[in-house]
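Budget justification note: compute hours in this period were largely spent on complex prediction jobs such as the one shown. Inputs:
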Amino acid sequence: MADRRPGLSAFSRNTITSAQYASHGSQLRSSHASSLQTQLSVFQSLLHQFSVSHAKEIRSNPQFRNEFARMCNAIGVDPLLSSSSGRRSGNHGSEGSAAGGSLWAKMLGGSVNDFYFELAVRVVEICRETRAENGGMIALTEVKTRVSKGRGIGGSMEVSEEDILRAVQSLEPLGSGFVVLKIGSKQMIRSVPKELNIDQSVVLEAMQVLGYVAISMLQVNLGWGRARCVAVIDDLISDGLVWVDRQAEETEYWGSAWIGAGES
Amino acid sequence: MASPAAAGPSLLPTTDILTTTNTSPNTDAFVYPPQYSFPPFYTLQPNLTTRASQLSSWSGLILAYAAHANPRLYRLTPAHSIFTNTALRRTLAPTDARLVLAHMVEHGRAAWTDPTAATKARKAGAGSDGGGGEVWLYWRTPEEWAQQLGSWVEATGQRNTVLTLYELLEGDATSREEFHGLPVEVAKSAVAVLVRRGRAQMLGEGDGVGVKFF
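Corresponding output:
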């Protein structure tokens, strides 16, 4: 009997306490959330002020821009995010992201977005201009020198490699087929949508050592049969990725993507 | 000699080379484009897309070089030293160099000095390198030269005056003009442009050719 009384009332008591815990918890959560929201909005406005007052510097100083972009990244803000895109909803609460996404873009858009889109246009131009020469693959460093040389109305742009990478990323939603590849130690931008097979990548990587390869070099260093080497080289030639030099002792094959890259 | 050598947008796909090297002719050392130190540049490329780019790069290099050289270069043979890079020990073979020149002629950036020899050589087959092969370089097209001649005549108020080609090209009055020293043959093709537009008339024959501008 004695153990039944507390047992019965315990049901209601338990529900009451758990309800109280729950309400207290939600209270805590909401106050926490609202304080975070305040912090975030303060931060937003500060970031906004910052980006407006330093807009000129963000555009002109690549190092500064880099730091700014890294800061934005660290707090989960993508300076390139366009206003229509809601892809980042996973990071925020559902309500905040819809408004927040466009807000960020609006805040930063004027200076940062435009900069990267402009740069992306230049990168596309450069890739197209040089496509016949290099088969649609160009070294990142080469793009950088060409961009900084500049020409035409906008004049030259002072950019870092990270800027260019970011600009290429901003092309992604267009499905334009611009891809950044890493071959050996070099980063290349591939503007023709074609996959390199493993053999081709290996040969292109080997080219970085001296700038060229010869069939015998490949045979010795990779342990491939002659036919395999010749086949890979022929493929690379027909893709326009390799230039032939017949005036060396043994015919040499040079990576076209490195034509201007050796000097910078 | 300083002249606003505006390498116009009409200057072939490789305008980059030209705009960077052409801004101040005869003062700075000539800056060779990066392809110049790329050994395969001296071997005709088997891939046709690559070859097209190679030919137009050569064309750009030659025109920029010719406009920059002191004295300026107006004619070129396939055996010219520009086709050899002694540091790399590479030479574009004369048969290949001839292809470059043919490419330039095709794109209006050069003209065979002896058109009949050129057609004869072509009829004889691609393998033969029989004569011809020398070109006038059009680092300014005849249209551009025509424009310069026209505006000089206009600026000096010599319309309806008969000027000899010698006066125009070698006279003291034009010593500051870019067309000063232009070979007679090139100047004639420029005047021909003006004649076609009804802006000039050629008078006389031989060395004493005169031009009257309207």
